[in-house]
Amino acid sequence: MSGDTNADSPLTLKPDFEEAKRHWEAFWAQEIIDRPCIVIRCPNENAEPAPRPAYTMEAHADLDEAVAQVDAYVHSIYWGGDAMPHYSPSFGPDQFAGFMGAELEWSEDPEVRTSWGVPFVERWEEALPLTIEEGNYWWLRMIDLMQRLARAAEGKWLVSHIDLHSNMDALVAIRGATPLCLDLYTHTDLVTQANDQVRELYPLVYDTLHYAGGMDKLGAITAWLPAYSEGKCQTIQCDFAALVGPKHFRKFVLPDLEAEANHLDHCIYHWDGPDALVHIDDLCSIEKVDCIQWTPGAGAKPFIEWMDLLVDLQKRGKSLYVGCSVEQLPEFHRNLEPNKVFYNVSASDRAEVDRTLEWLVAHT
Predict the structure, then answer these.
(1) Do the domain assignments include residue 309?
(2) What per-residue confidence (pLDDT) applies to 108?
(3) What is the model's pLDDT at position 227?
(4) Could you tell me the CATH number of the domain that includes residue 114?
(5) Reduced to 3 states, what is the DSSP secondary structure of residue 160?
(6) Cα separation of 318 and 340, whole Å?
């Protein structure tokens, strides 16, 4: 059960830091203490409400202003259960491509809150080698933002890693999906070179931002998925996998994911859409992928109706991320192994947080 005060906690926003840390250590080891890991948040009744900053704020606003808004947002949340107070900065999904020189375009609809990379590769022969130029605006701004956030967060909350659409997803962003699919057949050697170069950039990008954000001090969060680890951790993914068959997955995607997972102490794989289901055997063969977040995708049946797949993934040895409502939680808890799952749940208030935690302990 989460406490309210702990003089030994290194974070003022997480007085029960050490208790939550023990639950995360148990989760990664596929063990259990008294209940599954659960990230459960609600509004902080002792702080002013504050909206989550938009990508455009972090990308274009004065950085001091952006950091102040982030700090207010993190304080506006009550971080219950095993939720570690944190923030994952972002310039949008294709920021890795931005680091390699792609221009980023922004949605004019403030409700969409996204950006995308503008493809710039016409001929691979002219684009290679793929690098991060020393003076790249987005790269330098992200490092600066990470460092400022780390100073503002110190002793209060954690800076999380960014959403890294690396590997073949980065190539999609700089080339375009249809041209890249055709290139797999017509320019195989050049795509292989490009993919190898992006793979070599991953440790540089990850480590630079890991240390800029101070994640080596108290631990890190797996980017936009809220799992905590004392070591290096991240959400990895390759949405491009849904566009290729097993042959190309094994040649291009599998080596990327293995290399990224091997660079980390722990990782979660973001697995997106029914078209990617064909790769289940290859995906589950990656020993260092600890946990899988299954996302049904637009137009598919709801997440709760994929219980057979979730059970199968646990039988294959993988742990699961389950984002659900408080009302749905008992259904997942009845069907899934509690030592191989962590839940991400929103509550209406502190009372609902406490009731949910008590229920999990009583029914585990």
Answers:
(1) yes
(2) 77
(3) 98
(4) 3.20.20.210
(5) coil
(6) 7
Residue 11 in domain = no
Distance CA 47, CA 56 (A): 25
Is 230 a member of any domain? yes
Going from the C-alpha of 59 to that of each of 89, 115, 119, 196, 305, the distances in angstroms are 10, 10, 19, 28, 38
Q: Which amino acid is at 140?
A: L
Tens of pLDDT, residue by residue over 264-307, are 999 999 999 999 999 999 999 999 999 999 999 888 999 999 99
Question: Total domain count for the chain?
Answer: 1
Question: Cα angle vertex 147, ends 200, 107, to 5°?
Answer: 75
Residue numbers of the domain that contains 334? 17-362
pTM over 0.70? The answer is yes
The answer to whether 289 and 318 have CB atoms below 8 angstroms apart is yes
Distances (CA, A) of 357 to 21, 85, 210, 248, 325: 16, 18, 31, 44, 13
Domain assignment of residue 31, yes or no: yes
List pLDDT tens digits, range 21-53: 999 999 999 999 999 999 999 999 999 999 998
